[in-house]
């Protein structure tokens, strides 16, 4: 979806080059670890989006390996900066918005633990390379169009949501695709020395999943929330807003869905 945004609104100051593991479109390249890097010679910055999002505990442990591969690539290319996309799943659930420096790093599941291990691998590598690239670890909120809710929406049928004792469903921080693209653009405009080491990436206001589902006219079925379910996951975005200003589409259900519909890849539902 970020690629779709940049196809229609090319960024100023850089030309995106998209890496694919298999068939690549005209604006991308097919590249895997170990391949020749001749086609990557012009790359000046690296945005690391690759990662394992599901699977067994052992399979998810591959996220740390992917992180190290990305940094070895960055070193080989001598890039200016690396934007490494992590996840809000590294945080422990908390009733208040979570700051980057809060110390609340206690993932609730194997995916979160694997992303925290990947962060640790990145930071360990960076600490040992004094002349390495600028580094920013981006802890992404749920991406509109790419989380579990939207996977259910794209399959069609009824959407099942947890209902908590409050009578409400889950509420989460989200980032809309167009806003995510603009975050990348702003960080790539900054000097490598000025990019933040860790950055929460989300809208200012969390969104109820019910509101998102209703914006798509999906049929919702409620079920009692299990004890392990988390009613609220909200990120503090003060550090982000100081860099990007407000990200309006990411804090409102109607605008978030409109953004998703505008930038989703052709062929998606």
Describe this structure in words.
By secondary structure, the chain is of the alpha/beta class. The protein has a single domain, classed as NAD(P)-binding Rossmann-like Domain (Rossmann fold). It is built from 9 helices and 13 strands. The protein has helices at residues 2-8, 57-60, 62-77, 110-127, 148-155, 177-189, 209-215, 238-244, 253-263; strands spanning 18-20, 28-30, 45-48, 81-87, 134-140, 142-143, 159-163, 171-172, 174-175, 198-201, 207-208, 220-224, 232-233. Strands 3-4-5-10 form a 4-stranded parallel beta sheet, with helices on both faces. Strand 4 (81-87), helix 4 and strand 5 form a beta-alpha-beta unit. Helix 1 crosses helix 6 and helix 3 runs parallel beside helix 4. The longest helix is centred in the middle third of the chain and has 18 residues, at 110-127. The radius of gyration is 19 Å and the shape is globular. The relative contact order is 0.16. The mean pLDDT is 92.
Structural class: alpha/beta
Helix content, binned percent: 25-40%
Give the C-alpha Rg.
19 Å
* Main sheet: strand order: 3-4-5-10
Order of helices and strands: HEEEHHEHEEHEEEHEEHEEHH
Can you tag this structure with a few keywords?
Rossmann fold; globular; 13 strands; 9 helices; 3-stranded mixed beta sheet; 34% helix; 269 residues; alpha/beta; 4-stranded parallel beta sheet
């Amino acid at each position: 979806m970020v690629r779709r945004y940049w196809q229609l609104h090319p960024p100023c100051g850089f030309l995106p080059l998209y890496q694919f593991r298999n068939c690549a479109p005209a604006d991308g390249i097919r590249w895997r670890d170990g391949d020749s890097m001749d086609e990557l010679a012009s790359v000046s910055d690296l945005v690391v989006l690759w990662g394992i999002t599901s699977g067994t505990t052992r399979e998810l442990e591959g996220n740390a390996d992917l992180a190290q591969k990305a940094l070895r690539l960055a070193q080989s290319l001598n890039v200016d900066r690396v934007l490494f996309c992590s996840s809000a799943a590294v945080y422990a659930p908390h009733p208040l918005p979570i700051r980057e420096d809060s110390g609340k790093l206690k993932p609730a599941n194997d995916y979160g633990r694997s992303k925290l291990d990947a962060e640790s691998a990145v930071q360990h590598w960076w600490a040992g390379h004094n002349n390495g690239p600028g580094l920013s670890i981006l802890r992404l909120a749920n991406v509109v169009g790419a989380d579990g809710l939207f996977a259910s929406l794209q399959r069609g049928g009824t959407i099942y949501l947890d209902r908590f004792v409050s009578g409400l469903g889950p509420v989460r921080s989200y980032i809309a695709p167009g806003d995510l693209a603009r975050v990348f653009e702003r960080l790539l405009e900054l000097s490598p020395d000025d990019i933040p080491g860790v950055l929460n990436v989300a809208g200012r206001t969390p969104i109820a999943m019910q509101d998102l589902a209703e914006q798509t006219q999906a049929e919702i079925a409620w079920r009692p929330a299990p004890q392990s379910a988390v009613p609220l996951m909200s990120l503090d975005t003060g550090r982000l807003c100081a860099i990007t200003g407000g990200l309006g589409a990411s804090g409102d259900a109607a605008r978030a869905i409109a953004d998703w519909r505008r930038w989703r890849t052709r062929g998606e539902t």
